[in-house]
Each structure stands twice: as C-alpha cells, then as structure tokens.
Design a protein that fits this description.
The protein is of the alpha+beta class. It has helices at residues 33-58, 60-80, 87-101, 133-146, 193-239, 254-304, 311-338, 351-360, 384-400, 459-470, and strands spanning 103-109, 114-118, 150-157, 163-174, 180-188, 347-350, 369-373, 379-382, 407-415, 418-425, 473-479, 483-491. The protein has ten helices and twelve strands. The structure holds adenosine-5'-diphosphate. Adenosine-5'-diphosphate binds at residues 397-398, 400-401, 425, 427, 430, 438, 443-446, 454-461, 484.
Length: 506
C-alpha cells in the first residue's frame, strides 16, 4: 500500500552515484498511518464490544435479577394501597401484577387467613401456596418484629429443565383503615432464555457491523491524512537535492496545511539564499578579479615601459590592493560574525572621541564635508574596535551614496540612558520597500553591479551582526531623492566607569 512507504529512508534520485551519496542510517521500520489508525480503531472497537458483551451477556443475570426484584417490591407497594378500598380494584391490581411480572399474588390477614389469591397459570404450585395458615401468621409476626419485609430466593428447574431462580417477597402492611395484611409475591427472576438468545444474535450483528465500519473508517481517515503527507514527503525529498522550484500542496488537515506553508516558506528562503550565494560568488569573483587585473596590468606596464614607473601608477596599485584587502576582510568578518565565532572584548571607552578619530581617516577626501554634532564626550561599554567598524561602515556608505553636496553629517544625542549616533547623507535615498532588505548580506538596492559606486553588499550586514551581539538597536530612515539617516543606539556607561577608560586602537 502506498502509505506504508512513509517513514522509510530518503530515496536517492537515479543519477546520484551510490558511493557519493550519504548512506541513510538504518532505522527501525515504523508503522504507517493506516496501520496506526487501524490499530487504534481496532483497540477502541474491541473495548466497546467487550464492554457490550460483558454487560449484555455475562452480567445479564445479576442485572435482570436486581431489576425484577425491584419491580416485585414496587408491585407489593402498589398493591398495599388497594387493601382498604374497593375489592374489585384490588383484584384488578393483583391481576395486573400477575400479567406484568408473571408473579403469584397472595394476600392474607395477620392471622394467616387468605383474602386474595391470584396465580400465574402454571402446572406447578408456587411455594407460597404451600404455606399453612400458621406459617403465614408466623411470617406476618416475624416481619412485624423485624420491621422490614422478607425476601428470599430458591432455585428450581423450569418446564424446559433450565435452572431458574425464584424470589419470594413478603410484606406486612397496616392500612390507613386499620387492617393488618400480609402481601406475598412469588416470581421467577431469571431472564428467559429467549432474551439471552436475542441479545446474542443482536450482538453478533453489532460486532460484524462495527468491525466492518472500523476497517472502512480507518482506511478512509488514514487515506485523508496520509495523502497530503505523502505528497509533502515526496516534494521534501526533492528539496533535499537543492531543487527549489517546487510547491508543497497546502491540502489536508490544519496541521498538515501549516506544515506545507512552512515548507513553502523554507523553500522560498532556500531559493533566495541559493540565488544570493550564486550572485555573491559572481560579484566576489568579479570584485577580486578586477583589482588583480589592474595590479597585474600596471605592474607589467611599469616593468616593460621606461618612464611608466610613476608615483601615480604606484598609487593605482596601492589603491587596488587596499580594495582587495577591504573585500577579503569584509568576507572574513562577516563569516566570523555569522558563525558566532566572534567574541566581544568589552571595555568602557570614549565613544565620542573614537568617532572623531574615525572621521580623521576621511580627511584626505578633500571634496567631502564631514560634520559631527556632539555636545559632550560620552563613554559606553562595548567592543571599541567593532563599534568603530560600525561607524566606519555607515560613514563609508554615506560617502558612497552621498548626493551632489558631498556632505556627511554625524550627530550624537542622548535619550533615556542611551546614546544614539546617526549618520546622514543627502544622496539618492533608499526606496521604502527596500529598507528591510538592505541589512541582509550581499543585498544591494541597485542590483546592477557597479563596482565603482558600491562595495560588496556586506557592510550593513556586518553592522547588524555587531550591534546584535551588543544587544544594541539600530535603524534607518530614508526619503528617496533626499537622503538617508542610519542610526544605532548603545546604553551609556555610568560616569564612575571613567577610571577604566581605554583608548580604542585603530
Ligand atoms: P555595499 O557594500 O553595497 O554598500 P551595504 O551592506 O553597506 O553594502 O549596503 C547594502 C545596500 O544598501 C547598498 O548596496 C545600497 O543599495 C544600500 N545603502 C546602504 N547605505 C546607503 C545610503 N547611505 N544611501 C543609499 N543607499 C544605501
């Protein structure tokens, strides 16, 4: 059956050579959904049927005897209300008991004289008919003294030679009219064999119907449950082999639909990551190759052509080497941060001063204007090198994407025990729908690879990772055409930490 395939090891596609594929671990074969549901249903059905048989057949005798005895007692109570009035009504009440309960009815006075006698028309005389007047008299007195009715039973063979139990019930009554009477009832309390036979036939039918229903229901329910799971499982197998162009059918029960939705989301994310990886590989190899080509070209020119060994040409080689170093460092930083291998060296350091020093690096860029609006010098507890890398990355971006005014404005504000550093440029800005994505690694708003303008797509991802490690907050606001403001916040150190101040090393 198809469902039984579930839970087995991953089937390898035909084109994967067996020696290269990871050997699936030997797993204990688990039962399929159909078998599990079938077993569950079977256990439930067996329990219900067992209870039914136990109650209906095994416990029939005690139940029947109990109910019949209760009815006999009730009949005696009813009859006792007729003792005073109309004799005809009394006779009819007694006849009613005879026909309803198949009970023999005797009523005698306290001295044992019979006043009413109605017998079930059977060949054998009931035991109560064999009592003498004296015995009835004694019975009345015994009940009177004990203060409770008399109940006994005996066993005998009926006309079919079956062993049956017969109950005798005697009750002494004093009527409101002042009469003292003994009511005697005698009846079989064993269920007739026809009842047992009927029940047995009925239960056999019920058992057959329930077993058939159980199998059919288990089959349909398990098919309904397992079909979508089987289809999800088949798609998931393809996912394991990097085939992301698939769709998990969102059918079946709520849990299965949610599973399919989650897997669809995971497949989309995997596809994105995969295309980003490919894009990065292309970009990085392009980024690595271009400066290398330049370095090689300029070096060869300087070697081969007299007079080309100029400071300008050497500067090109130095610039391209710096670009390469940046790229390799960025990749290393990010891979360390993302692998969780980066450790923070926290110390209390002067943030404001450190930013000023970072900005000094850009003084060579004569055509750019840098402003830093900071009213006071503040201390924070953080990793000085990593925080200056954050500032460096944000300022580099502001320079890369600055507008015609070539101005980068930094500001330091304090609010609720936190210091906020913001970096503003008046460049092209970032579209609203891209504001979330730019923090992802390798993401570039302008997908076209413009090496001259933009870097590696790693800068903001490094910023995010560093600030996450510090538990800091960060964000960006931007208006396309007007510019962007990137900011981050760190908790301020209390002033007493001044003593431990360290200067950041560049
Ligand atoms: P990159 O090295 O490409 O700058 P980042 O991770 O630093 O990589 O930035 C990701 C993307 O975010 C950039 O490619 C750019 O599209 C956008 N971006 C970052 N900073 C700015 C900014 N100041 N102005 C406009 N766009 C920006």
């Amino acid at each position: 059956m198809k469902q039984e395939n579930m839970g087995e090891g991953l089937a390898l596609p035909e084109n994967v050579p067996p020696q290269k594929a990871a050997k699936p671990k030997r797993r204990k074969k688990t039962a399929g959904i159909l078998r599990q549901i079938l077993l569950g249903f079977a256990a439930f059905t067996l329990l219900i049927l067992g209870l039914l048989w136990a109650f209906q057949i095994l416990l029939l005798n005690p139940f029947y005897e109990y109910v019949k005895t209760q009815e006999i007692k009730k009949a005696a109570d009813t009859l006792s209300t007729y003792l005073d009035g109309d004799p005809q009504a009394r006779i009819e009440a007694a006849l009613q008991i005879v026909s309803d309960l198949r009970a023999n009815v005797y009523i005698s006075t306290e001295t044992g004289e019979i006043v009413l006698r109605n017998l079930v028309n059977e060949y054998r005389p009931p035991q109560i008919a064999l009592l003498t007047q004296t015995e009835r008299f004694q019975l009345f007195n015994q009940i009177h003294v004990n203060g409770r009715p008399y109940l006994t039973s005996y066993e005998m063979r009926d006309s079919y030679q079956n062993l049956v139990t017969v109950a005798i019930y005697a009750k002494a009554v004093q009527t409101p009219g002042g009469l003292n009477r003994l009511i005697l009832l005698e009846s079989e309390i064993t269920p007739p064999s026809t009842i047992k036979d009927t029940l047995r036939v009925q239960l056999t039918w019920v058992t057959a119907v329930m077993v058939t229903l159980c199998i059919a229901l288990a089959f349909f329910i398990s098919r309904g449950i397992s079909r979508p799971i089987v289809s999800i499982n088949n798609s998931a197998k393809r996912l394991a082999f990097s085939r992301y162009d698939l769709h998990f059918a969102e059918k079946g029960s709520r849990e299965v639909r949610e599973l399919a939705q989650t897997l669809n989301y995971a497949a989309r994310q995997l596809a994105n990551a995969d295309s980003l990886r490919k894009e990065l590989l292309a970009n990085v190899s392009h980024d690595l190759r271009t400066p290398l080509t330049m370095i090689k070209g300029y070096s060869e020119v300087m070697r081969d052509l007299p007079g080309e060994n100029t400071p300008d040409n050497v500067q090109v080689i130095i610039d391209e080497t710096a670009r390469l170093t940046d790229l390799v460092n960025g990749l290393l930083d990010l891979s360390k941060l993302e692998a969780g291998a980066a450790t923070l060296h926290i110390s209390t350091f002067p943030l404001t001063q450190s930013i000023r020093e970072t900005l000094k690096r850009y003084e060579k860029l004569a055509d750019f204007t840098f402003t830093f609006d900071a009213r006071e010098d503040l201390l924070v507890s953080a990793d000085p090198l990593k925080i200056s890398q954050v500032v460096y990355n944000l300022v580099s971006n502001a320079i890369n994407y600055a507008g015609a005014d070539k101005t980068v404005a930094l500001a330091q504000t304090v609010q609720a025990g936190k210091v906020r550093i913001s970096v503003t440029d008046h460049g092209e800005g970032i579209p609203q729908d891209k504001l979330q994505d730019i923090w992802e690694r390798y993401y570039k708003v302008d997908r076209e690879h413009k090496r001259a303008q933009v870097g590696t797509g790693l800068g903001l991802s490094i910023v995010r990772n560093i600030l996450d490690l510090h538990g800091g907050t960060y964000g960006v606001s931007s208006q396309p055409g007007k510019g962007s403001t990137f900011w981050f916040e760190l908790p301020l150190s209390p002033p007493q930490d001044n003593a431990q101040t360290e200067n950041p090393k560049e």
